[in-house]
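re: the backbone from monday

yeah here it is again, tokenized this time
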């Protein structure tokens, strides 16, 4: 919900700052802001989940290699 509010605020700011004369340009700006925000969320999710998955696989590999003696 907060992400959509931020996107709307950013798009409103861009529309106010750019000399646009048609709704078509405003829509393009809104889509560009939405795509940028979605890309940022995806990148952050991949970074966070990548670290978590790496840690999980490392722990599992350690348990398998030690025949579960220390797990």
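seq for it, each position gets an aa:
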């Amino acid at each position: 919900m907060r992400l959509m509010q931020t996107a709307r605020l950013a798009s409103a700011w861009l529309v106010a700052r750019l000399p646009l004369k048609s709704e078509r340009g405003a829509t393009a700006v809104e889509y560009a802001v939405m795509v940028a925000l979605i890309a940022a969320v995806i990148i952050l999710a991949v970074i966070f989940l990548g670290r978590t998955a790496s840690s999980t696989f490392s722990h599992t590999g350690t348990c398998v290699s030690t025949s579960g003696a220390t797990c």
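The mean pLDDT is 81. The chain has one domain: 2-61.
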